[in-house]
């Protein structure tokens, strides 16, 4: 994907182009974190609004896609954590059947058994598995992103691998 | 198959997972509506004293864009809260640098923060329980707005995200209702 320089002559139109180029990636992150299509849509909206507001201060040190990805991950982490904590108090469970159906629709060719297994992981481990194995973040960067030590990231990955292997056998 | 081989197979499956997903509908319309309703930063100065703040909806239908002008003002207050650690309550704010000074914006933030903290200090000293509760809710609402603006200023800064998360959690840890706070 070619990188777009942020020179906004018609800011809204240009931003729509940026949105069109990147929204699928952002939705994929949001969907895996939220495990709910409605909440994933909210995260996408939040991520792009944050990006819109911050675009003038984007300094070009990183690629636009990298920066936008980081914004999306933060939006997903913020949104999903707040909501999941609230829903836990209300004793609501994630509807994995609905999630799997959405994954099947939105990501043709996805390994649905694997996606279900990842979605069933405990909160901390799930986030780390998505960031590391699917999104390709190194452990150190995940540790910084989540405010935990790198050793915790690695131990969560170890635990997650064990749980995933059990779920997939 | 050895444990190492099973790990490798699992990691390969994860690496093949799609990184793109197509939303069921065009979300651009929602995003466009949201950014169109985002006012410019300088509207923070137009806040009316009896403005109404509704807490951010943490669940329910689509998340709407927060009340930005009030939140921007609150953001100024939060920044100052950090800056004025060590400063005595009630002490007059330092004189503002000349407007063209590069410190002018920081001084404005500090002044707003001083007022915010002083108001909270007065609330603790004199208000009754009802007023105090309402004041605390207003303070948290302002903090949440400030945290949101921190994220806006540094969208890829995980620390800013954690501040927003923590403040949002503090608000959500109330009684579950979504009170309306009036100044």
Question: Outline of this structure?
Answer:
With 169 residues, chain A is mainly α. In chain A, 75% of the residues lie in helices and 0% in strands. The radius of gyration of chain A is 17 Å and the shape is globular.
Biggest interface found: A-B, 65 and 47 residues
Name the poorly predicted regions of chain A.
none
Strand content of chain B: under 5%
Helix count of chain B equals 6
The total count of strands of chain B amounts to: 2
Distance between the termini of chain B: 67 Å
Low-pLDDT stretches of chain B? 40-69, 85-90, 175-183
Mean pLDDT of chain B: 66
Oligomer: heterodimer
Largest sheet of chain A: none
Cα Rg of chain B: 21 Å
Using only C-alpha atoms, the radius of gyration of chain A works out to: 17 Å
Task: Give an overview of the whole structure.
The complex is a heterodimer of chains A (169) and B (183). Chain A has 169 residues and is an all-alpha fold. Chain A is built from eight helices and no strands. Chain A has helices spanning 11-34, 37-54, 64-89, 96-106, 112-119, 123-134, 139-146, 150-168. Chain B has six helices and two strands. Chains A and B meet through helix 1, helix 2, helix 3, helix 4 and helix 5 of A and helix 1, helix 2, helix 5 and helix 6 of B.
Please supply descriptive tags for the structure shown above.
heterodimer, A: 169 residues, mainly alpha, 0% strand, globular, B: 183 residues, 6 helices, 2 strands, disordered C terminus
Give the secondary structure arrangement, pairings included.
The complex is a heterodimer of chains A (169) and B (183).
Chain A: H1 11-34, H2 37-54, H3 64-89, H4 96-106, H5 112-119, H6 123-134, H7 139-146, H8 150-168
Chain B: H1 3-15, H2 28-36, E1 52-53, H3 68-83, H4 104-126, H5 129-153, H6 158-172, E2 181-182
Antiparallel strand pairs in B: 1-2
Helix pairs in contact in B: 3-4, 3-5, 4-5, 5-6
């Amino acid at each position: 994907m070619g990188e777009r320089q942020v020179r906004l002559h018609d800011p809204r139109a240009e931003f729509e182009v940026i949105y069109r180029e990147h929204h699928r990636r952002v939705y994929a992150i949001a969907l895996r974190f939220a495990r709910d299509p409605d909440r994933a849509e909210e995260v996408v909206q939040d991520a792009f609004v944050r990006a819109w507001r911050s675009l003038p201060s984007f300094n070009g040190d990183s690629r636009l896609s990298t920066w936008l990805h980081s914004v999306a991950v933060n939006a997903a982490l913020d949104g999903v954590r707040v909501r999941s904590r609230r829903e836990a108090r209300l004793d609501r469970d994630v509807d994995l059947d609905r999630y799997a159906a959405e994954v099947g629709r939105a990501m043709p060719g996805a390994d649905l058994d694997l996606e279900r297994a990842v979605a069933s992981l405990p909160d901390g481990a799930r986030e780390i598995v998505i960031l590391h194995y699917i999104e390709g973040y190194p452990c150190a960067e995940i540790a910084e992103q989540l405010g935990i030590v790198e050793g915790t990231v690695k131990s969560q990955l170890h635990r997650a691998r064990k749980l995933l292997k059990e779920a997939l056998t | 198959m050895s444990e190492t081989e099973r790990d490798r197979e699992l990691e390969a499956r994860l690496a093949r997972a799609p990184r793109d997903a197509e939303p069921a509908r065009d979300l651009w319309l929602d995003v466009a509506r949201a950014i169109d309703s985002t006012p410019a930063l300088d509207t923070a100065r137009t806040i009316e004293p009896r403005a109404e703040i509704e807490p951010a909806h943490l669940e329910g239908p689509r998340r709407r864009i927060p009340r930005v002008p009030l939140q921007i003002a609150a953001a100024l207050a939060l920044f100052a809260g950090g800056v004025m650690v060590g400063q005595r309550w009630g002490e007059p704010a330092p004189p503002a640098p000349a407007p063209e000074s590069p410190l002018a914006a920081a001084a404005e933030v500090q002044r707003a923060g001083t007022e915010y903290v002083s108001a909270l200090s007065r609330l603790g000293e004199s208000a009754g329980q009802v007023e105090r509760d309402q004041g605390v809710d207003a303070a948290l609402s302002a903090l949440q707005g400030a945290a949101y603006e921190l994220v806006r200023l540094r969208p890829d800064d995980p620390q800013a995200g954690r501040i927003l998360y923590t403040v949002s959690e503090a608000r959500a840890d109330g009684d579950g209702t979504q009170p309306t706070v009036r100044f």
